[in-house]
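Before relying on records like the one below, remember that each one covers exactly one chain. Contacts with other chains, cofactors or solvent are not represented anywhere in the record.
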Amino acid sequence: MSPSSVTVRFDEAWPIAVAIARKAAAQGIDSVLVRDVLGRLCLALDDRRRELSQDSVERWRADMTEGLGRYAASNTVLLASDLFAAGAVFDSPRLVDEPGLEGSSEQGRIRALDNTVVGEDWARVTTPSAETSGGRTARIALYGFKGGVGRSTATFMLGKHLADQGRCVLVIDLDLESPGSGPLLLIEDEMPKYGLVDYLVESALGNAEGLDLVAPASGVPVTGNGELWVAPARGHGSDTVPYAYVDKLNRVYADVPGSAFPAFADRLEQAVAACESAVAERSRQPDVILLDSRAGIHDIAAITISRLCDLALLFGSDNSQTWNGYRDLFTAWRTSGQAVAIREKLRMVASMVPDKQRADYLESFREHAWTCFSTLYDDLPAGDQTGFNPSPEDIYAPHSPIPILFTLDLVGLDGATSQGWSQRTFVQAAYGEFLNTATHLIGEGL
C-alpha cells in the first residue's frame, strides 16, 4: 500500500512532518513547520545562508505531499529565498521551539508556527505588568476544567473573607456564558448599567469610554475597612432599551483580521484594567482582583490563566474527567514550551471533599494530581535536585490540594436569596482551610 493511499489523521500528521524536517536539519538547514487553521502543514526552509539542492527540495516536497495526505498544504515546501517577507515566518514572535530539536552547529533548528482560530493564548504565558495591574494589585484566577465544582461560590467566599480583613477586593465575573459570582454578589437592581460583555463589544469599535462597569457588592456585609466590588458579566441595562445580552455574547469573541481595533485577548485585558481603574477612581486601588473564569478549554480561560493572573487556583474533583482534562491542558503547555513559565503560579483546589472520608479522598486526589502535574515538572536523574520536581508529599507544591469540604447542607442553597448564608457554621467549616491557604498565597504576592 503506497503512502498516498493511507488515510492520515490530525494526530499522525505532525510526527510525519517532523520526520521530514529532520532530514533538512541533518543538512544544517533551519526550518519552520507551519500549520494552518485546518491543520494542514508546510515546511518552510531557511536557505538564506546555506544553499539547498533542488533535488533535496523536490524529494522533501514529495515526502510531505505523499506522507501527509489531506494534511499537506497546497505548497508543501517554502524557501526563504522565494518569500517576499521571509521574516514574517522565520522571525515571527509566535514561533515555538520543538522540544529536543533545538539544533546545533551541525544540525539545523526546527521550530513551529501554529495558526489556530481560537486558543492560541494557552501557549502565551505572561505575567501582568505594573502598568496593567496597578503596580501592587494581586490578580487571582479561579478556574475549573469542568463546571459544577463550586468555583463561583468559592470566589464569593474568598472575596468576602479578604474584604473582612481590610482588603479592597474586586471580583470580575468572566464566565460570560453562565454568569456566577456576579449574581451571587449583586442584587439585580443594584447592578451597574453595563457588564464585561458590553466592554468587549464596544471596545472592538473603539467605543468603550465611559462605561459604568463596577458596583459595590450589595447585600454582602463587610466588616472593618475592607471593600468588596463587583464587575458582573452582564449589566442591568436601561429602563427604556432592552438589554440584548445574547446578541452581544454572539459577537464578543470576533476578531477582524487587519482591523485597527484590538484583538479579543487585548480587549479582555483592557476590560480587566478598566474595571480596576473604575474602582480606584471611585474609592481606592484594589489590593486583590479575583477573576472568576469560564470553565473548560476556552479562550477566556486561556487568557485569564496564561496572561492576566499571578496565581491560578485550579478546581477539580477526584475523577477521570478532571484528570484527563488537566492532563490535556498541561501537555499543551509542555509542548509549547510554557511549562516553566506557568507551573509555579498554579495551585490545585480539591472541591466537594467528603467530610467523612476526607483523609482517604485527599490522599487519592494528591496522588492523581501529582501524576497529572508531573507533565509540567522537570525530568530529573536520580539524586538530581537542581530542577523543579516536587515530591508527592510536598504540601507547598502546585499539585498539593487545598480542600473545600462538601456537605449535604450546601445542596440547593441559593446564595443570592439566603441572607447570611456564608456565615453559617457548616459553610465556614467547609471553606475554612481553603480561605486560610488562599489568603496566605495571595499575601505572599502582595
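The mean pLDDT is 86.
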